[in-house]
Amino acid sequence: MLNVPSQSFPAPRSQQRVAFGGRSKVPLKQGRSLMDWIRLTKSGKDLTGLKGRLIEVTEEELKKHNKKDDCWICIRGFVYNVSPYMEYHPGGEDELMRAAGSDGTELFDQVHRWVNYESMLKECLVGRMAIKPAVLKDYREEEKKVLNGMLPKSQVPDTLAKEGPSYPSYDWFQTNSLVTIAIYTKQKDINLDSIIVDHQDDSFRAETIIKDCLYLIHIGLSHEVQEDFSVRVVESVGKIEIVLKKKENTSWDFLGHPLENHNSLIPRKDTGTEIVKPYTPVSGSLLSEFKEPVLPNNKYIYFLIKIYHTGLFTPELDRLQIGDFVSVSSPEGNFKISKFQELEDLFLLAAGTGFTPMVKILNYALTDIPSLRKVKLMFFNKTEDDIIWRSQLEKLAFKDKRLDVEFVLSAPISEWNGKQGHISPALLSEFLKRNLDKSKVLVCICGPVPFTEQGVRLLQDLNFSKNEIHSFTA
Ligand code: NAD
Question: Which atom of ligand 1 is nearest to the CA of 356?
Fold first, then answer.
């Protein structure tokens, strides 16, 4: 079982905040503070020397990297190249060198078990330790009965031949109420569109797209789980985490038993899966001068769909031709138009395609709410090219003085002189000023799950009540 510390970084009482247990800190050179380290990790510099590849590391290979300028350390099965971090380590270089070229888990736990190394060293991740063939053999019989922790791929007849530096793997860990299945895809360009998760009763199936193949996890779970689950993607390390909620808060001894094709890579063309994905319909345009095209039955639904080229679903949509069919369900959702009654201030926080629910809200608010005084949209994107309908938004804000639009970029080019960064208390407190102390306010928020969750927390911190916040969740 993988036991990954879950605190945020730096955790309270961590080495980064205090010298703990009498251990002394080594004076760091100028420009080698924690903030400098964070800046370096965000600079896009290749810190592993592997150009973004994640590899499987054998013990022999690990041992070779035992010098200051070439130092790999294994912590809980993950191997990090810590050479770039040497000068930033508050405990000093010699302390880190004690674990050079070896498994430093025990040493790490003695000294700073509470540090969220996963986040701090994520750009230094080289890959996972390879499973020793001898261990693999021992486990094979076991896996027929149970799946416990990260077991090898014995269900696939030619698995051993297929194993290699880029073969995906999985693992699981649990808390009292949750079970997390972590899939290590060993490729960095994955996103939520790369995975389909399906579970019914005790059968759990996850298909992850990996180049031209699907990596399948297919398990009869040992205990019951609730219907809803969440999926997180850590793009930078190619990890997918599927979080299941236990029906009963008991500790599981094992994850379950393998079902057909469990833990195997199969060519994508061999599978046929019906995919259901929620999309928010939008309008044809934000501008009133837009004229709908004339089609025979005069019925339209507009969608704004981002094509993730490495994804499972959207490339298929992209390939559709005029005359092809897709099935569309009846609408779902819980947004009530009554929230707009007597509304004076409307704030919209959108990130990426999370802009889509804001389209109809904007259209409606600016035409049908007489009490409305101000609408403010803060639109978060990675780059300028990602801003959906930028010119329409700018035109609309120019025409209707009640509307203000602010773009915030998380990965701008250096010439960008607008707002930068991720959603934060500083950005929100400045942006969310009510017109009057007691004005009737609504804040709508939509975007990637971590964005929305963080945004809702910040809004609550800023004293917006539950009734004043509506978050859209896919
Ligand atoms: P993206 O990856 O391009 O990111 C856009 C912006 O979101 C980033 O610039 C950043 O500011 C913010 N962001 C991203 N990850 C973040 C994180 N971990 N923490 C804080 N902020 C973060 O976004 P995208 O690819 O366009 O994805 C949009 C998301 O919105 C998808 O997950 C989609 O499912 C969701 N969505 C939901 C609905 C709905 O619930 N009705 C509708 C549309 C889109």
Answer: 43
